[in-house]
Each structure stands twice: as structure tokens, then as C-alpha cells.
């Protein structure tokens, strides 16, 4: 199986970006931990972080036919991007939406997501553990094919 991890804008700054909200773990550490977790399950993990909406969309298009599950932290695009929603729907690849912070406890403009209602599920507020739980569920669903 092949799982694609996508991270949206500003997440390249994890570790130094508002650490009181987002923690001290860098994106490189998250990706390395998740790759290790995927390896243990003999699952291939690919990763893209981009600050550009079109690059995330292009990567989703490329995933059609060769990626089985997507784990995505769309970052600020969560709250703005109909295009990202449409791309995910277009390729019909199930996905889990992840946020480090509890977006519902933050500014009202973060309470709405363009992706949540078409996602397999949403994890928010659990920090970096959210990625790990998402991977665990993706692997479980793929290997039990349900
Ligand atoms: C975020 C929450 C978003 O509201 C914000 O724009 C981000 C990160 C999170 O992981 O908590 O950039 O997706």
C-alpha cells in the first residue's frame, strides 16, 4: 500500500513557528517518525509540504491510481480552499484531515473546514500524535479493506 502525507502552508516552519501552539517538533522529525511507522507495516509513505495551493493539487492529481490513502494537514487552506476539496473528490482517494491544534478552540474563522465533510475523519488538537493516529487508522482500513 501507498500512503501520501500532505502538509500545507507554513508547516515547513514547525518547530519554530508559534511553538506554544504548534510545539517544538520539526516537520522533518514528523516525517521521519511516520516513515518509520509506515515501514513497520510495510507501507510506502510519500510526503509533500508546499506553501503553494497548486502544488498540493497537482500532487493529489498525480496520486490517482497509485496512492491508496491520503493524510493531509491542509493548514490555512483548510479554511479557504474549494479547489483542494474538489481535487480530493476528483481522485476519490480516502483521506484523513489532521490539525495539530484544536481549531475549534481558536478563532471563529478556523472553525469551518472545506474538507471535513468529505473526509474519512478529522483529528485535531492532539499535536504531532494526530499524524501517528491517522497513519494507524489508514493502515488498518487498507489492510482490513473496510
Ligand atoms: C493547522 C490549523 C490551521 O488553522 C492553521 O492555519 C495552520 C495549522 C493545525 O495544524 O493546527 O496552519 O492546520
Labels describing this entry:
single chain; about 150 residues; alpha/beta; Rossmann fold; five-stranded parallel sheet; 5 helices; about 20% strand
What does this structure look like?
This protein has 146 residues and is of the alpha/beta class. The protein has one domain: 3-Layer(aba) Sandwich (Rossmann fold), CATH 3.40.50.9100. It is 37% helix and 18% strand. The protein contains 5 helices and 5 strands, in the order E-H-H-E-H-E-H-E-E-H. The protein has helices spanning 19-22, 27-40, 53-63, 82-91, 129-143, and strands at 2-7, 44-49, 69-73, 95-99, 121-124. A 5-stranded parallel beta sheet has the order 2-1-3-4-5, with helices on both faces. Helix 4 links the parallel strand 3 (69-73) and strand 4 (95-99). The longest helix has 15 residues, at 129-143. The two termini are 14 Å apart. The model has no long low-confidence stretch (mean pLDDT 97). It binds 1,3,4-trihydroxy-5-OXO-cyclohexanecarboxylic acid. 1,3,4-trihydroxy-5-OXO-cyclohexanecarboxylic acid binds next to loops.
Amino acid at each position: 500500500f501507498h500512503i501520501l502525507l500532505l502538509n500545507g502552508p507554513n508547516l515547513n516552519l514547525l518547530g519554530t513557528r508559534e511553538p506554544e501552539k504548534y510545539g517544538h517538533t520539526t516537520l522533518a522529525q514528523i516525517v521521519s517518525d511516520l516513515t518509520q511507522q509506515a515501514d513497520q507495516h510495510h507501507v510506502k509513505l510519500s510526503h509533500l509540504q508546499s506553501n503553494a495551493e497548486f502544488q498540493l493539487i497537482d500532487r493529489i492529481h498525480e496520486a490517482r491510481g497509485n496512492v491508496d490513502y491520503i493524510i493531509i494537514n491542509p493548514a490555512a487552506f483548510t479554511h479557504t480552499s474549494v479547489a483542494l476539496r474538489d481535487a480530493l473528490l476528483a481522485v476519490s482517494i480516502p483521506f484523513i484531515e489532521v490539525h495539530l491544534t484544536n481549531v475549534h478552540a481558536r478563532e471563529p474563522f478556523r472553525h469551518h473546514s472545506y474538507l471535513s465533510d468529505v473526509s474519512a475523519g478529522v483529528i485535531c488538537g492532539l499535536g504531532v500524535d494526530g499524524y501517528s493516529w491517522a497513519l494507524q487508522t489508514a493502515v488498518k482500513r487498507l489492510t482490513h479493506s473496510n
